[in-house]
Amino acid sequence: MLTPLFWRYANPRILIFDEATSALDDESQSEIQKNMARIIANRTVITIAHRLSTVRHCHRIAVITQGRVTELASHDELLQLNGSYARLWQQQVHFNQNKSTLTKTSPL
After folding, report:
1. Which ranges in 53-83 belong to alpha helices (H)?
2. pLDDT tens across 12-36, in order?
3. Distance CA 68, CA 31 (A)
4. CATH number, domain at 48?
5. Cβ burial 34-58 (10 Å sphere, 16+ → b, else e)
6. Do the domain assignments include residue 100?
7. How far does Cα 73 stand from its chain's mean position?
8. How many domains does the chain have?
9. pTM here?
10. Which distant-in-sequence residues (6+ apart) come within 8 Å of 50 by Cβ?
11. Residues 6+ apart with CB under 8 A from 70
């Protein structure tokens, strides 16, 4: 986590988050994303992530395949294109639904 001292003196205009929430459970990731609005306000943010829920609210999402940008649009626009991003999104949604069902039905 970035320290308050860093923010006080550096005040960067560009932030890069590389898999910043990849090791977190869904609940922790959601909580951090809620608090990020304050940190990223009035800054350019580049987010690198495999977990698509991390980039869902970004203005522009670039899908990179074999080193090339193959899709570039907002989350909703990418879903409408029905390309790689849409397929990955559906896979992750399906996985999370199955995980949720298993958690609810598994005995303690």
Report:
1. 75-81
2. 888 888 876 666 677 777 777 777 7
3. 32
4. 3.40.50.300
5. eebeeeeeeeeeebebeebbbbeee
6. yes
7. 15
8. 1
9. 0.66
10. 19, 22
11. 63, 64, 83, 84
